[in-house]
Amino acid sequence: MITEKPRHAGDTAEAPAGRDVVLRWAAENPGSAALHQRARGLLPGGVTHDVRLAEPFPLAVARADGARKWDVDGHELICYVMGHGALLLGHSHPEVVAAVRAQAGLAFHPGAGHELESDWAELVVRLVPSAERVRFTSSGTEASLLALRVARAATGRDTIVKLAGHFHGWHDQVAVGSDPPFDQPDTAGLPRGLASSVAVIPADEGALAGVLRTRDVAAVILEPSGAAWGTVPLPPGFLAAARRLASESGTLLVFDEVVSGFRWAPGGVQQVTGVVPDLTVLGKVLAGGMPGGAVGGRADLMDHLAGPAAGSRRVAHPGTHNAHPLAAAAGVTTLRLAAPGGLQAGAGRLAAALRDELTAVFERSGVAGRAYGESSTFHLLFGPESASGTVDAAALKNSVPPASVSAALHCSMLSEGVHLFHGSGFLSAAHGEREAEQTVRALATTLRRLQAAGLA
Ligand SMILES: Cc1ncc(COP(=O)(O)O)c(C=O)c1O
User: How far is the CA of 239 from the centre of ligand 1 (A)?
Assistant: First the structure.
């Protein structure tokens, strides 16, 4: 199964410890339970995204506003899922809602070029250092597929290198090595020959140098924030080394900034680090909460998409909803508000303070763990390895809480009015001190419950 961050391994059979915390939340949420019963007969697993599968059943939400949302049982929740990271401005920002409404009155789909697609592309080119040209898609997955196709067309090579644990959507070529164990396909249903054209390596300069020396590689694709939006940060200096090694071997460097783009800074991680890739994959914040994605990159590479003018190396890319006007309306409004960078800086400061306060809660409670993360995100890390201060793949492997702890953590935080995204969170410009304080209190209560249940 593909997830947007590493899944919690460990015990799969539900341990009795912590079950009361889960059952308490279940009892408080008959509406979500009933909707899940109904959905299970209609939607495989009762969900429409693998990552929403949850014990004892998924939360169902009725409406949302700013940093908060209300579930179908009427509970008010602080939202740290934020449209899987898409909602930098918060839920239903009034200017985004007004722009989408205005466009809906003009045309959903004119079946022709429109002004908003150029407005949108202009913003991407202005903000994202690597983007000289832009092609819009309907999702981040489509954008990563397109970037790799452009890379193969431009280099005339087949092999793609990706980093273990890095997620680039669910299309076949990247559905290998995202989930542990990293040397396996993440899903059934992949063509048998696929593995020969995709190499999965650890985020290690030597490993990258080795594969680029021994194979003709079209592209190296990676999350420049580190795997799963910084859950596993990259080793210091890795991005600059990847840039150098790719250039030396005629390989294209592709940054997947679907999460980090417009969030880490208006120009994403590439603006923060100064390491500029050849192609960038975008999504989420790009489209302001509507479905959308894009590839941005060097003009000579992107011109493979220019139709017959591109000749025999032409990259075909149709798509009914590419640059859909409603997505463009939300995207243009969001990017205009995000362009100065103040919103990201504010959300980043609040997230940094929240990470410190959550870590202090762990220390006061005596539970081994801490919060970490970058920009406007946080991740909770459990276990003795958290004390080392270094988060790498090895430390995380030993710190992954068993499924029973994850379920109890999730349900207890929900009972306290906080919706975490699998033990992590995205902040938005709508989050403030009030939300942070409630989250800190919720974690303190939750750690007490976990201790009482013998889970921490
Ligand atoms: C880094 C990254 N790349 C690509 C994707 C795929 O984007 P989408 O879900 O819009 O297809 C995601 C989705 O979470 C992502 O986190």
Answer: 20
Contact 328, 249 (CB under 8 A): no
Protein residue with least CA distance to atom 9, ligand 1: 140
Are 130 and 297 spatial neighbours (Cβ–Cβ below 8 Å)?
yes
Distance between Cα 67 and ligand 1 center (Å): 22
Alpha-carbon distances, residue 189 vs 338, 378, 420 (angstroms)? 39, 34, 31
Instruction: Name residues whose C-beta falls within 8 Å of residue 275's C-beta, 6 or more positions apart in sequence.
Output: 224, 239, 240, 242, 243, 269
For ligand 1, whether the C-beta of 144 sits within 6 Å is yes
Alpha-carbon span 227 to 363, nearest angstrom:
26
Give the number of the atom of ligand 1 that is nearest the alpha carbon of residue 84.
Answer: 14
Ordered domains of the chain (ranges, CATH): 19-79+342-452 (3.90.1150.10), 95-338 (3.40.640.10)
CB 409 within 8 A of CB 401: yes
Instruction: Please give the Cα distance from 252 to 293 (Å, whole number).
Output: 20
Q: What is the pLDDT of residues 361-392, one digit of tens each?
A: 999 999 999 999 999 999 999 987 777 666 77
Residue 266 CA to residue 275 CA, distance in Å, equals 15
Whether 257 and 169 have beta carbons less than 8 Å apart is answered as no
Distances from the Cα of 103 to the Cαs of 137, 288, 368, in angstroms?
19, 14, 51
- 140 within ligand 1 shell (Cβ under 6 A): yes
pLDDT tens, position by position, 8-58: 333 444 445 788 999 999 999 999 999 999 999 999 999 999 999 999 999
Ligand 1: distance of its center to the CA of 141 in Å? Answer: 6
132-136, 168-172, 379-383: segment of lowest average pLDDT: 379-383
* Ligand 1 in reach of 169 Cβ (< 6 A): yes
Tell how far the Cα of 258 is from the centroid of ligand 1, in angstroms. 6
The answer, yes or no, to whether any atom of ligand 1 lies below 6 A from the CB of 406, is: no
Of 50, 51, 136, 258, the residue with max ligand 1 atoms within 8 A of its CB, to mutate for a pocket test, comes to 258
